[in-house]
Amino acid sequence: MTLTGLMRYLQDSSRFVSSKRLFDRASEGMMLHHTGAPMPKTKLAVTLDSSLVGEVDNLVKERRFANRSQAIEVAVSEKLQRLAQTRLARECARLDPSEERALAEEGLAGGKDTWPEY
Fold first, then answer.
1. Which residues pair with 40 in a beta bridge?
2. Burial (CB count <10 Å: 0-12, 13-18, 19+), residue 35
3. Is the Cα torsion angle 62, 68, 73, 79 positive or negative in sign?
4. 29-46 confidence digits (pLDDT tens)
């Protein structure tokens, strides 16, 4: 992700609202994982370009985020979610629609007795 892309990403107010909800629900010293369960945070040292730090500081000053850590955590979390969605789309593209349709029709033609009991 480029510097410009990251800043656009951080400045998108719709992301801030959803991110704010995430942090409002989080306990102190904990963050909500994708499963919704709290998980402990780990302190991490990161080296960033000074202009990027300045832009993050402006977002904090504008009260878009409570602090630098929150802004960076939200950006990383949302980027990882997008990467996971990209991987899912890539795997789905590998599926053969005619083969999937044939498998579905075969399952439907089998009748109720061939379906597993739940």
1. 30
2. exposed
3. positive
4. 555 555 556 668 888 899
Going from the C-alpha of 114 to that of each of 1, 53, 100, 106, the distances in angstroms are 48, 60, 18, 11
CA gap 57, 9 in Å, rounded: 15
- Model pLDDT for residues 68-100, shown as the tens digit of each residue: 999 999 999 999 988 888 888 888 888 888 888
Please state the domain extents for the chain: 3-110
Structure tokens given for 87: 């991987």
Phi and psi for 48 in degrees, rounded to 5?
-125, 155
Token pair belonging to 56: 């993050």
- The H or E element containing residue 4 is helix 3-11
